[in-house]
Design brief:
mainly alpha; Rna Polymerase Sigma Factor, Chain: A; Arc Repressor Mutant, subunit A; 8 helices
Length: 202
């Protein structure tokens, strides 16, 4: 069953239909929240808040892209978290742990058995460098960069999710990419050669 029909059923009171929508989008919602907030607990809170809000406000969904509608709620929840902390989230350069003290599982690509230990370490360091640079972007730039360049959402979906004109999304993304490129030059030893600025090469 497609998302539009699931959404219509959810609006009529079907909890099962809403749960199916949650299953479809929960990974994307969490990933977006985590990249924006750079904190697993805050991302969990924002994601949970977003889904609760989505359920309570299903009557405001008027059709169109359910993903875009939901991502707007997720990004608003993230902005609320950022305002609550009144600080720019900072990436922890040490392995992060959950509430039980266990180290959080690495990204899926780090578990690739075809990679050598050295390659996994390099990819882990690059992951941390990218997150560090994302964390230092202005909030509006980071949201767009995460949605487009990290999660692969199309411009129109992001425009609807953020509630901002398409041209503004493209402008923010271009400026975010420029800042990311500049920031990542501080970690150029981790970057593939094609991504290093010529002026930085020795």
């Amino acid at each position: 069953m497609d998302e539009l029909n699931l959404a219509k059923m959810a609006q009529k009171g079907s909890l099962d239909a809403f749960n199916q929508l949650v299953m479809i989008h929960q990974e994307l919602a969490y990933n977006v929240a985590f990249r924006i907030l750079s904190d697993p607990a805050a991302a969990d809170d924002a994601t949970q808040t977003a889904f609760i809000s989505a359920y309570r406000h299903l009557d405001s969904y008027r059709g169109g892209s359910f993903k875009a509608w939901l991502m707007r709620i997720v990004t608003n929840a993230c902005y609320d978290e950022l305002r609550r902390y009144k600080r720019r989230p900072q990436v922890d350069l040490e392995p992060q742990s959950n509430e039980s003290g266990e180290e959080i599982e690495s990204p899926a690509w780090l578990a690739d058995d075809t990679l050598s230990i050295e390659a996994r370490v390099e990819l882990s360091e690059l992951e941390q460098a990218i997150q560090h640079c994302l964390d230092n972007l202005p909030d509006d730039f980071r949201v767009v960069a995460v949605m487009v360049d990290v999660e692969g959402l199309d411009y129109q979906t992001v425009s609807e999710a953020v509630g901002t004109p398409l041209g503004t999304i493209k402008s923010r993304l271009a400026r975010a990419r420029a800042r990311m490129q500049q920031c990542l030059q501080h970690f150029q030893e981790l970057l593939p050669h094609q991504f290093r600025l010529e002026s930085e090469k020795r």
